[in-house]
């Protein structure tokens, strides 16, 4: 089964839990997600199924959008609400202007230290496994981009926020460092991913919705239409003779597509058979073939 599916992840599940559940529901072994969500977090978790997993390479730098809540006055070892307190709780006597001013320092390209309880690997071992055993975790800072960090409101020790960030950014680390900047500690109290790449909450389906569709024998009704995938790549529809060559990985001449480097090659309205890359002029080579063929290789 080939397709793109966006799940609205519930709190308490790991991203791997979601993948495993979808594999069982759809009887499809090849399922992968496009960016881990922490168990506490909810929201948009795009999945690629079957041959569509070959598209993952185009999503390695996909922007993510979030909404959530910072809590000030208490730091935790995981930088979120599921961790153990670190130090004494402090009174959060802050103004909205103070929080917004401090948050502005985290917008742009910044060097960020990943949380010790994270999937970042140290000597091949995920950092969270070392942290759970109380072993020293020596992570290195990484450069990320925070394109938006807007503090929407402040009520007591909790601040609502909205954010757009580059792939690999930890909102938990921002919560921790923001609390440190304000001098009273802080952690991430809640988080909901509202978009990942081109996929938003309007595309997301619950696991219960997917299960109902699977039981009705029509799980594909919950999939994202292939023409909406990778919107930066133009679509081109080819006739059967060219489609046969594309399926065999043979370079073909396609209609002029401006100066596009990549194009999505379709047969009909909904069968995405390849992502092709320009060689020169109108000549494109199938970089990723998504639909194979048992037919002989077509004659030139």
Walk me through what this model shows:
With 300 residues, the protein is α+β, with helices and mostly antiparallel strands. The chain folds into three domains: 87 residues, 2-Layer Sandwich (Pseudouridine synthase), CATH 3.30.2350.10; 133 residues, Pseudouridine synthase (2-Layer Sandwich), CATH 3.30.2350; 63 residues, Roll (Archaeosine Trna-guanine Transglycosylase, Chain: A, domain 4), CATH 2.30.130. Helices cover 18% and strands 34% of the residues. The protein contains six helices and 18 strands. Strands 1, 2, 3, 4, 7, 10, 11, 12 and 13 form a nine-stranded mixed beta sheet that branches. Helix 1 packs parallel to helix 5. It is elongated, with a radius of gyration of 23 Å. The model has no long low-confidence stretch (mean pLDDT 90).
How would you describe this structure in keywords?
alpha+beta; Pseudouridine synthase; 300 residues; 9-stranded mixed sheet; 6 helices; Archaeosine Trna-guanine Transglycosylase, Chain: A, domain 4; 3 domains
Instruction: State the assembly state of the protein chains.
Output: single chain
Biggest sheet layout:
9 strands, mixed
- Helical segment tally? 6
Structural class estimated from helices and strands: alpha+beta
How would you name the CATH homologous superfamily of the largest domain? Answer: Pseudouridine synthase
Mean pLDDT: 90
**Percent helix range:** 10-25%
Q: Span from first to last CA?
A: 32 Å
Rg is: 23 Å
Low-confidence stretches: none
Provide the β-strand percentage band.
25-35%
CATH architecture descriptor name of the largest domain: 2-Layer Sandwich
Instruction: Write the CATH fold name of the largest domain.
Output: Pseudouridine synthase
CATH class of the largest domain: Alpha Beta
């Amino acid at each position: 089964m080939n397709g793109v599916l966006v799940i609205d992840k519930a709190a308490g599940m790991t991203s791997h839990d979601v993948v495993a559940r979808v594999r069982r529901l759809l009887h499809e072994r090849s399922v992968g997600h496009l960016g881990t969500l922490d168990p506490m977090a909810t929201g948009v978790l795009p999945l690629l199924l079957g041959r569509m997993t070959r598209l993952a390479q185009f999503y390695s730098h996909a922007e993510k959008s979030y909404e959530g809540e910072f809590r000030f006055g208490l730091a935790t070892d995981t930088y979120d609400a599921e961790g153990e307190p670190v130090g004494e709780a402090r009174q959060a006597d802050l103004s909205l202007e103070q929080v917004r001013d401090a948050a502005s320092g985290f917008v742009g390209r910044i060097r960020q230290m990943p949380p010790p309880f994270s999937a970042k690997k140290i000597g091949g071992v995920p950092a969270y496994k070392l942290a759970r055993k109380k072993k020293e975790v020596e992570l290195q800072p990484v450069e990320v981009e925070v394109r938006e960090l807007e503090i929407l409101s402040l009520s007591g020790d909790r601040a609502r926020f909205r954010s757009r960030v580059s792939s690999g950014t930890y909102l938990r680390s921002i919560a921790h460092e923001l609390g440190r900047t304000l001098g009273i500690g802080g952690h991430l109290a809640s988080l909901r991913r509202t978009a990942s790449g081109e996929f938003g909450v309007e595309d997301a389906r619950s696991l219960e919705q997917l299960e109902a569709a699977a039981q009705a024998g029509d799980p594909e009704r919950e999939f994202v239409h292939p023409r909406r995938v990778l919107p930066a790549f133009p679509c081109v529809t080819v006739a059967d003779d060219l489609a046969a060559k594309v399926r065999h990985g043979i370079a073909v001449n396609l209609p002029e597509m401006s100066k596009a480097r990549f194009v999505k090659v379709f047969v009909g309205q909904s069968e995405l058979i390849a992502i092709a890359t320009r060689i020169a002029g109108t000549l494109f080579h199938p970089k990723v073939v998504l639909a194979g063929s048992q037919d002989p290789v077509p004659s030139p």
